Amino acid sequence: MNTKKRAIWVFGDYRNYFQNRVTLQLLAKANDLAPKISAEVCAVLFGQGLDQYVAEYIAHGAQKVYVVEHRSLKNYSVEKYAVLLERLANDYQPETILVGATSFGKEFAPRVAKRLGTGLTADCIGLKITEDGLLLQIAPSFGGNLLAEIITPNHRPQMATVRPGTFQEIPHNNELRGEVVRLPIQKDLPEDRVRLIANERQAQRDQRIEDAPVVVCGGRGMGSKKKFKKLFDLADLMGGEVGGTRPVVYAGWLDTDALVGQAGKHIKPKILLSFGISGAIQHTAATTEADFIIAVNKNPNATMMKMADVAVVADASQFCTALIKGLKARIQA
Amino acid sequence: MDFNPCMKHKAVRKSVRKFAETELGPIAHDIDRDSRFPWEIIEKMRPLNYFGLQVPKEYGGAELDCTSYAITIEELSRVCAAIGLCITVHNSVGAYPIVRFGTPEQKKRFLPRLASGEQIGAFCLTEANAGSDAGAVETTAIYDNGQYVINGTKVFVTNGGVCGLALIFAVTNTDTQGAGASVLMVEKDTPGFSVGELEDLCGMRANPVSSLFLEDVRVPEDNMLGRPGDGLKIGLNALDTGRIGIAAQALGIAQAAFEAAVKYSKERQQFKKPIASFQTIQNYLADMATEIDAARLLLYRACAINDAGQPFGTEAAMAKLYCSTVASRVTNLALQIHGGYGYSKEYDVERYFRDAKITEIYEGTSEVQRLVIARGVLSQLT
Amino acid sequence: MVSELPWDSKTGTLRRDLAEGMMNPACANALEAAFQIKRRYGGDIITITMGPPMAEEVLYEATAMGADRGVLLTDPYMAGGDTFVTSHTLARAIEKECPDFDLVLCGCHTSDSETAQVGPQLAEELDIPGVAYVEQLEINNRTVRMQRLSDNFFETLEMDLPGLVTVTTQANAPRYPSLSVLETAFGKPDISILGAADLGLEPETIGVQGSPTKILDVYSSTAKKKNLIMKGTAKKIVDEVFEKFGDRISGAIKKDLKTHYHEKKP
Q1: Do A246 and B21 touch (CB under 8 A)?
Q2: DSSP characters for C33-89?
Q3: Which of A224, B69, B123, C258 qualifies as a FRET site for B298, CA 20 to 30 Å off?
Q4: B264, A220: Cβ pair inside 8 Å?
């Protein structure tokens, strides 16, 4: 074997809060996996003015941080970053590279994998080490209805993008120490063929229903437009967004933007609360990636009820009122 | 003998199904409950040629073969029978008689607006005292100086509340009763033409079925389809294609009910087992599947004969008789399989059940179909 | 129907031969984008798909809607490929069938596996600039300007042709083919069918064999769900929900919840 220590690399995605969090989550998981294959956990960071991230990643478990800092790397660039990571990986031969499945990560990682001639599993929701020391990548398939266990037996590095929120980050620990390896920018990096013309941070308040941690969905079973409004109160209370089925959009209870369905928004919340929705395939296909579903319906046989983790047999509107009351009473002031 | 649909027929089915499931699926329940005609969907259907299914391309139609036409109606009706009804009536007995019997001038005048859906067509034969007995029509059209003056009342007019052009059966020669029936094309805004209240029907509630009143309605003689006295011929011919449409509609409803029954019987647990595991339910499902398949083959055969340019009246009547019978039976069993839930408006199967019944009645009752079939059989086997 | 796509339990790959020949939703958006580009700037639209023989239906559909010709890549050796070999196969087909292409449009992801990897990897294979998740695009001379929302950043990007974009389902509303067009399109659409040998691809470099990733197992994710049924008065159920899942709810809404709520009772 190589004299170099084996390594699990985590790509440092930091452009916004959520991207940064998934990096920390991956560092935690890498720390969980690394001892099983006697590997060290490394973070790889590209950009400019990265000191705060270097420190943060070490405090969250990176034993080594590779840093390439240069003003030409200030803005995220798929092409430049892909070439850089490819070259670093060729130089240091990591066993595994983990990338957060953010929009950037999902565009960037496939290109790195292609350049390295290796496999890549998308959007993993579980990682393990097999008895043979391989990375077992667990990824959803068929709109989340199936889970696939995937390995990359003969190619290195083993690469996976991982869905944000899958793993728990290690609490920040200032006692932790790590090595910082600062690498110079390479002179022959190719020019960007894709030019960034404008880049505007979306207002933080505008949470998209696709990204919301809590989604409250309502269907015809809510009864009326007036009753449907209660769902907004519930969503506000939970920091979530309201979505609905096509009939309620047609009925004018909800804006078309908030249609959750094959032709509308696909959601993947940590909790989906489904009120009075029977579960036509057009709707359910867009909700299968919800981590946890609480469905409320008078009819226990509704498809949505079968799909749910918790199926509440009750009038949707009445239960919504009770839940709002219960939640208000419990939320610590 | 090839039982596999060709690529075109598969594509037509896929395309219509996608449209129906996406656009009509979410509202089918509500428009039935509210008896609402969904203009917003009609607007979407217009540019896709749903209103010119069998109209020649030169007049803006799709010029579909009969099989594609049946598939279109079947797939629309599988999701929303009331809109399937609007489309089939508009096409088969609204536009098609003009395609078949209209003069070049009449085609130019009327077909483009029908094919684009700008005008929805209606076919007005039935009256209070004339249903199956087409000869008993009492509406009159009296010739007066280059015009016909029409007087009478038509009932149970499908698309009545929304029609832009009505084909009116009226007696032009009052001496000869039925033999004197003729067909006149009357546009909605003609003075004296008015729409009565919408009928409150058991099923097909999203279709604005209504009465039409004709009080001294004057139309130019150019508005007569065919010659005076051609009414019965045109009517019978229109009904042949009309029957294909209603058969297709019945088949679509049966298919929807069957799919619902299969789904429900796999989900519904009794005695800790899905009810689909019980032999009684399996027997029901087996019968339903077999009958639907037989109905479909009968219908497509009638279409194929028509597409080959051969007389298909008897086969169309057989298809209509059998498909509608199957639709009633299958929706009844599907409701039974659903038990109490099936009787609830929360489930679509109750709507299928109500919608299916009329297919045994309109466009010629089952009794009349048997008459037509018997006549065909007797004339063939002398 | 997405949820009922059959999979082969032995190889763990989708049995695309049993799935109805449905166009992937995001690909319908890519096709719609192509129609809009053609209307504004002209050009020929060539659709390419890889799959079992029945995938040809999708090409018929595309032609019916206005594409100029179609290319079906079908070969038992191509079956079961991961994105690495799929992008390789597609790239060779593009180089063979339309070497002078200006723009490659892909759906941003498939509705079955949702990897979203083929587009970016295809750009690498063709060595052209590529941008994923595009919501709007316009072309000026040989420059494409694109807009997208990426990780909460509104980005405006430019690249010169030839290039590749993947299109989101938010980009446009795919048209339904009109029945009249369907009726005409089935005369003799221009569809070529190619196998591995036609592309000069060795069986071991494509399909299941050539894929770096291997599927060990596939199982239903819903089978693992408990499906706990709760009945009773609304108030009682609410208490039960918090009792059993309070931690989970607290984590998702990032607010602390009183855990001993009902112990207030005497």
Answers
A1: no
A2: HHHHHHHHH----EEEEESSGGGHHHHHHHHHHT-SEEEEE--GGGTT--HHHHHHH
A3: B123
A4: no
